[in-house]
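REQUEST FORM: STRUCTURE PREDICTION
Request ID: SP-0412
Submitted by: Lab K.M.
Chain count: 1
Length (residues): 425
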Amino acid sequence: MGIARAALYTAVVVMGTVGAGAQAQAAAADAALRQAATAEQPAVIATLRDLVTVESGSTDHEGVATLMGYLDTRLQALGAKVERVASATGGPDLVRGTFTGTGAAKVMLIAHADTVYDRGILATEPYKQDGNLLYGPGIADDKGGIAVILHALALLKARGWNDYATVTVLFNPDEEIGSPGSGETIATLAAQHDVVLSFEPSPAKAVIEHEGVLLSAAGTSQVTMVVDGVSSHAGAAPEQGRNALVELAHRIVQTKDVAAGVPGAQLNWTTASAGSVRNQIPARAEAGGDVRVMQADANDNLRAALEAKVQEAGLVPDTTTRVTLEPLRPIYVAGERGQALADLARDIYAELDGRRLLMHPTTNGGTDAGFAGRSGHAAVLEGLGLAGWGYHAHREYIEIDSIPPRLYLASRMLIELGKRAHAPR
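STATUS: Completed
RESULT:
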């Protein structure tokens, strides 16, 4: 396991050696479901091809809408009542599928249909198989998660499972840009359910040895810095201007390490713009930064630290600098009830020949599980998608041999949650 790759997850707790209790559970595995999950693998691969070959970058509204239409059709074929939910920002609709059963459990399954890739990526990063690996943009993050949801529900439909009050499936179109149009919908619907299972990917076994689930993730925010100066002719009278671009560069260097003094905060400046023509001193310059927070007060403390820093002396006189910080996605923390779901997942994995399941304590990657857990009503668990790697990078892939166990896990969790909803509280 390379240190650089493992850095995505700050630590890993392996839920130990399988003891006598887990071995007993392994003997009690649902053999029919396990066989069905294995037999379903070719169908999952076919679905992954369908999903990946529709390019769906977050800003590619046409591509995302096409994929949402496909998901609408797939959910209807499974027997769901399907609704389109309008995005709060006017982008492509969310797709919501509702299944109504005869039991007591209210469970919500979430995954996102958008990717980070620009239109045309398939020309250089095509869908392809190489041994145990399937490659394609977004195949792990998060089209693999979508495939697990669709095919776990197909397995349960085939066996006539209806031991639930409601199973809601929600696919959203904008997770990779902070879910600005879908976050409130996720939070509202999650508060109406007992459990939310989120299907972001698990790190590949080639990276971190075993498949796993995730117990916490950073909240995300965006910070903006704007510098106002004075324009002038860059050739004839540069001294009459006040160069906002130069001052912005100075302020970025001045603030780049501010988050080091703010517990639970991380800041990286990632975008910048200034001017529009070569021969004019720019009067305005702007930078944007990515913020990750792991403590409830980190946003406010980081904002205050940035504001204090830009009050210090600048480089270019007669310029003004201001900073704003906007929270985007809440922190996800599994908590006691989410940990109980993780324990259930661990026990179910032990049914598969004593297979281990890793408990990833945290990641600085954001997740919609933060919105799902915001109300505190639902127990939330993240990381139930396929095992893969290369997210947001080149040659993104999933491991094919993760398909049967992840299908088994999702299906068995739903079955067990249905049973437990009837148990005395």
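NOTES: The chain has a mean pLDDT of 93.
Reviewed by: T.R.
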